[in-house]
Design a protein that fits this description.
- The protein is built from 16 helices and 15 strands.
- By secondary structure, it is α/β, with parallel strands linked by helices.
- The chain folds into two domains: 244 residues, Rossmann fold, CATH 3.40.50.2000; 173 residues, Rossmann fold (3-Layer(aba) Sandwich).
- The strands form three sheets. It has a seven-stranded parallel sheet with strand order 4-3-2-5-6-7-8, with helices on both faces. A six-stranded parallel sheet has the order 11-10-9-12-13-14, with helices on both faces. Strands 1-15 form a two-stranded antiparallel sheet.
- Helix 8 links the parallel strand 9 and strand 10.
- The N and C termini lie close together (6 Å).
Length: 433
């Protein structure tokens, strides 16, 4: 499905996009690039954060330069400073709302209005808070259709336990008013998973079921999965986890499970290794030492997004660690990136949840509940035995799982939403076919 005749012009509001150490930036950047490849004309209004939260080298690869060419970053200071305080106040003045982390919105709204006057956009897509503040005001003022993207529960007070207190958490008046406006005025709402969509629909103040869709995180190109050689070919079975392991995503059960696995199966470090890329945690080192598994665990330095994909492709198995949730409503960015590299996945993830649903429908991984070292050890044993026998890629074929996130399957859904909104708003603005 390609865009014919007039190509729709889209303003994508994504404060997290260019700095790809951030999972939100990864999914937003991949979505923007998918829009470009689909034939849309796109501008990305984003942020440049002066932050040290994500210590990942910048990605200077060609696709990132392409994204930079259409991006309009607004500089945002880091930490508690007069500049941050002033920007919060300016956002209140411009948007009528203020909350912690909204400092980008005021200046972004000014920039968005200038871009709109220059380019006359057909559509707004908001991705990552506080983009909803800018989209709300711009869509109302210019009468442009607006697609609101919710990669996580919104607002943050509604996150499930143990992150926050769940969908029934009360909101202060200003936040409730904002939620009311966003739910009412966004023309369409998209979610990366059906479970997150159902979760958010349960507390949204208006019924959005008739204008909601699941649009998974997307990628455009597969990353080479390597040879998949077995132990007999002299290779080590390398498991890889990329990114931070921060509360409430604790590594303790994973390491305890690894300890039980190597003890029970008599595995030696010459044939097995767990790489925690970008973690660099003294607590993890100390725990591995106490469990006697230091020789099995390495913590390579943080690396760029592109290098991390190549590291995943060079490994045999990828590891996902989620929080101990009653229901796994999230679609983790890591799961999609692992599938993109067509790697079998060990998911330490809730028994009821998105990862469990995907594995049940498409294969590609095994699941062990958080907090269960024995279950993790059993999964490690199963994966290691499959690798040792040379059947890992056949028994845990990740390609059907990866296809669910490839742009050839995801973007037709986006095309349909765009077509419906633009025809509904202006009759003949564009044709999507």
């Amino acid at each position: 499905m390609k865009i014919r005749n007039t190509r729709p012009r889209i303003l994508m509001l994504a404060p997290f996009c260019l700095e790809q150490g951030n999972p939100e930036a990864i999914v937003n950047a991949n979505f923007a690039k998918a829009l470009l490849r689909r034939g849309y004309v796109v501008d990305v209004l984003t942020a440049h954060f002066h932050s040290t939260k994500y210590h990942y080298p910048l990605n200077e690869e060609a696709d990132q330069r392409e994204l930079g060419a259409i991006s309009h970053p607004i500089s945002v200071p880091h930490g508690h400073s007069f500049g941050t305080y002033w920007l919060h106040c300016y956002s209140l003045l411009k948007t009528g709302h203020i909350y912690e982390g909204c400092q980008w919105a005021g200046k972004a709204l000014d920039a968005a209005r200038l871009l709109q006057r220059e380019n006359h956009y057909d559509l707004i897509i908001s991705r990552s808070s506080p983009a909803e503040l800018v989209a709300l005001r711009l869509a109302q003022a210019c009468r442009i259709p607006w697609i609101a993207t919710w990669n996580d529960p919104y607002p943050s007070e509604k996150y499930p336990e143990p992150y926050a207190h769940g969908p029934l958490s009360p909101l202060r008046q200003g936040k409730q008013s904002l939620l009311d406006s966003v739910a009412k005025h966004a023309d369409w709402h998209i979610f990366p998973s059906a479970r997150l969509m159902t979760y958010m629909q349960s507390y949204f103040p208006v019924d959005i079921a008739g204008r909601s869709s699941v649009v998974p995180h997307v990628f455009g190109e597969y990353v080479s999965a390597g040879s998949g050689a077995s132990q007999s070919a002299g290779r080590k079975c390398v498991l890889i986890h990329t990114g931070a392991l921060l509360p409430p995503r604790f590594p303790d059960s994973l390491l305890e499970g690894l300890h039980r696995f190597v003890e029970r199966d008599g595995v030696n470090p010459a044939s097995f290794e767990l790489q925690l890329v970008g973690c660099r945690s003294e607590a993890v080192s100390n725990l591995a030492r106490r469990l006697g598994i230091s020789q099995f665990v390495t913590q390579p330095a943080p690396m760029s997004y592109g290098d991390s994909l190549r590291a995943i492709a060079a490994a045999e198995i990828a590891v996902l660690v989620e929080a101990d949730l009653a229901e796994g409503i999230f679609l983790p960015t890591k799961l999609v990136e692992y599938a993109r590299c067509r790697k079998p996945i060990l998911a330490v993830s809730p028994r009821v949840g998105t990862a469990a649903d995907l594995f049940a429908s498409h294969g590609g991984g095994v699941l062990a509940e958080p907090g269960s070292p024995d279950a993790i050890a059993a999964c490690l044993s199963r994966l290691y035995a499959s690798w040792s026998s040379g059947t890992l890629s056949r028994e845990f074929d990740a390609f059907p799982l990866a296809q669910q996130f490839h742009e050839s399957n995801v973007m037709p859904v986006v095309d349909g939403i765009v077509s419906a909104l633009l025809v509904g708003s202006s009759g003949e603005r564009c044709e999507v076919a």
